[in-house]
Every structure is written in structure tokens, then in C-alpha cells.
Amino acid sequence: MTELMRLDRDGPIGILRFTQPGKRNPYSIGFVEDLVACLRQAERDDTLRAVVMTGGDYFSSGGDLVGFQSEIAKGARATSEMVDKVHDGGRAAYLFRKPLISAVCGVAFGAGLSLALSADIVVAAEDARLCEVFARVGGCPDTGSSWLLQQRAGAGVARTLVLTGREIDGRTARDLRVVEECVPAGQVEARALEIAREIAQHPMFGVQTAKRVMRASAECSYLEALDIERDCQSVLLCAHDFPEAMNAFSEKRKPQFTDR
């Protein structure tokens, strides 16, 4: 636990809480370092089967522009290195092996929105405010938002949101397929936890493999996706859980999974 975030747990579900909602959880270098550390901790904990990521009343207002100024003043090389370090947060979230669900209330701007979109599933409050704010401040997308937004909503919607810097609420984000679900603000975390528990009841080796397959196939052709699926499914068919499921079906009993 740090002053910026902490990793709680609710049974088999980890809850990664950003703990500076009064400051709207700015995406600072310190925030990134703690985010990477917490995700690694959650990944190493075999008793955690999924993680919900939440900022409470405010998910994240985005990049710490004031804090970044000292590095920017050093020139292009230092600035490039700083941006790459900021990107470590998105990399850690996107590559997280377990199911990751974002629970978005308040604001998710810039890098904060990128972080939310790096999860597998996003649950947003109806009155949440989402914005690709980069154009408003003379910048271009970073922290993976150019790719993540196009993957979710398509190129046309992504270009519109990026180039206009338009702010949208949770309902509009759902309609545009930027987020998967939209609920009243008071229900966001509960709904995210509900989804996490639904996922957590399944054999984890299969779930984590399925996540890897979905990530990989999103970046390739149909024929390449078939190859990815073949290679991963062949392993699962020979593991413990899939054969156990087939035996249980034949014997008309509940399967006894061991996550091996």
C-alpha cells in the first residue's frame, strides 16, 4: 500500500484502488511505478483469480502535466524517456495475465482513459466523463489510446473522439462501444465485482489462455487466429481441467477443477 494506491481483496478478487480521488488520481510517474508494482503483486498471488481496478469517485484525470514539466524542460531525449516510462503503466495493465476489469466513475481523461481501456472489460458510471483530451492541450494520443480506442470503437469513432477532444458520458461511451457496460454511479464497483466473480468461477488456466488468445487474435488475420487457437487449445485439451469437464459431462456430475 502507498499513498497513491493499494491492493485489497474480496475473496478471490483483487481490488486495485487508486487512493487520491481528492486529486482525481493523476497519472504521475509515481502512480505508474505503484501501478506496475501492484499488478505484479496481484499476478504473483495465485489465490487472486481476477482484478478490479477503480479510482473510487474519480478514475483518473490523466497525465500529471505539472509534474512532467521538469523532464520536458531537459529536452527531447529526456521527454521521450519520460513518455516511455509513463507507458509502463499501460503495458503492465494490457499484459496482465489475469482478467482485469475497470470500474470507471467521475473522470477518465487522457492517460486515465487509456488505462481504463487497457482492461479486458470496462464498467462505467452513467455520468462518468471520458475524454481523449490530448488535442485540447496541443498533443497527440499516447499511453496506447490510439490503438485501444480503435480496437474497441472502430477507426471512425476513435478519430472523432481524438481529433475533437470531445467529452462523452458513460451512456454515450457504451453506445459507441468504448465501454462494455454502463450502470448508475453507485453500482459501478459492485457490477465490476459481479463480473469478476463470474469469471473467477472458471478454471484459471483456461481463462488466462483464453485472454491471451483474444489479445493475440485481435492483432492478426483470421487464418493467423486459427493457428493461435489451435496451438493454445491443443494444450488445454491435454491439461487436467478440460478432460475433467468432459468426464464429468459423461458421468453426469459436477466437474472438480484443479487449475492445473
Automatic annotation (TrEMBL):
Transmembrane regions listed in the UniProt entry: none
Under InterPro entries, the record lists:
ClpP/crotonase-like_dom_sf, Enoyl-CoA_hydra/iso, Enoyl-CoA_hydra_C
Q: Which UniProt keywords apply?
A: Isomerase, Lyase
Superkingdom? Bacteria
State the Gene Ontology terms under molecular function: isomerase activity; lyase activity
Keyword Nucleotide-binding in record: no
> Biological process GO terms, please?
fatty acid beta-oxidation
| Keyword flag Lyase | yes
> What is stated as this protein's family in its record?
Belongs to the enoyl-CoA hydratase/isomerase family.
Question: What's the protein name?
Answer: 2-(1,2-epoxy-1,2-dihydrophenyl)acetyl-CoA isomerase
